[in-house]
Structure formats: C-alpha cells, structure tokens
Amino acid sequence: MTSHLNLPKIEEEIQKYWEEENIYREVVESKKGGKKFYFCQGPPFTSGHAHIGHAWNHSIKDAYLRFLTFQGYDVFRRAGWDMHGLPIEVKVEEEVLGTRTKKEIEEYGISNFIAECKKFAIKNMHRMTSQLKRLGVWLDWDDPYMTIDKRYIEGVWFCIKKAYEKGLLYEANRVIHWCPRCETALSGYEVRDEYRDISDPSIYVKAKLRSSDESIVIWTTTPWTLPANVAIAVHPDFTYVKILLKENNEKLILAKETLDKLFSKHEYEILEEFKG
Prior knowledge:
Rossmann fold; Isoleucyl-tRNA Synthetase, domain 2; five-stranded mixed sheet
C-alpha cells in the first residue's frame, strides 16, 4: 500500500479503461428507452485554451448529467462550440496575421481571413476538447455542433424566418457600444468581459485559534472571502514562528520572513520556531 496517492496517474488509468472498453457508449446505450432528458452544451468560444471557468461549469453540468443517468434517464449530451465572432477574429488578427486595422484585413482578402479564422477555431476546438475530456467530462465529443457548420447556420436562419413570419421581429433604435478599431458594434458582454492587469489591495488578518488564546497572522488579496473561510493553509516547507508581543502579551503565529515587515517597530520575543 503506497503512502502517497498519485491522483493524476489514477485518473489517467481510469480514463484509459473508459476509452478501451467504450464505457461512455455502453452507458448511453444501456439507458435507451428511459425517460428523455435533453442537454445541449452552452458553447465555449474556441479562442484559446480551456480555463478555470470552463472546468468549473463543465464539471457541475457533468455531475448533474451523471446523476440523471443513474436515475435511469436517457440523457442526450451534445457538446457544442462557439466558433464565430470578435473573440476569434481578434485572436487571428493578433496571433496569425499581426494586423492592426480592418484595412489590412481587406488587403489580405476577406475570404483568406475567414479561412484563417476557421482554421484557428478548429485547431482550438480540438485542443479544448482534449483538455475537457481529460477532466472526465462525458459529452458527445465525436459529433458536437459547431456554429461554423452550414447546418447550424441554416438552422439559425430558419428560426429567424419563422420569427419574422409570426411577426416577432421589429425594428427600433437602440444605444449600442461601438469599437472604432474593429469598426463594428460590441455586445455588453464583449465590453465588460476583458482580462486586464489591475492593482488590488492586500491585507494582513489576525485569526484566533479555537483551541487556545493564540492567533495566526495571514495575508490575503481576497478579503471578501474571509466571512466564509473555515480553515487556514500553511506551507510545509516554510518556517513559522510563535512570538509574544511585549506591548499586550499577545501570542501570534506567522511566517518568519514577515517578522521584520510587520513588527519591526514593536518589541517581541520569539517563543518557538517550526516548519509548516
């Protein structure tokens, strides 16, 4: 019996077994005839690698779909990919063409630019599929819907046509976001959902131990999470000290390297030194 579990290795072995024995298809076929449950994946943009947000929402959805499967439902699980729009176009402009203006794209050729966008989107779709499959997510990865597929595009136009025929479309004036560089309208999502480097305050917090009158001094850049915190993490290789503050006889535990920074103007006595 090993004293240390290599969880990534165990996961890979389980997934290899799933693939060799075609477990996903076996499960799907075994539920045929059960009550139907239809799930169509809200499609991620294929503009790069899968990130923590993809991991989070795919894991939650996968857990629920497995729960329904265990309840006997015949679950339709279709993967999907959003392969249109500005996120992909901007990535191709930056990483593939090195362009800065729409004029340069016109000189390159609209059809050539579209072909590069498709190539970029498909490459990232395969990459992200591999990453999400590695998380153990069970979806129909072999037949995903893709927004660049003509069948999907025709389906969208069919819905618009039906909406028009039923009098559900109307024309009106609205204030919209406009990008002078991209020379196109922007959705509110595209305006707000940008990654950028920002400066954020950090604070030191004194957390009292439940078992004694001592406190641990912690450092955090996310103070808004403190009300829900139930534990404190320490590093096994870092050196910590327990000190006695002379001014109020308070006992504090903190990382040794922060002593000078926090208490250089205070008198204290080191009572104990230890690893995390």
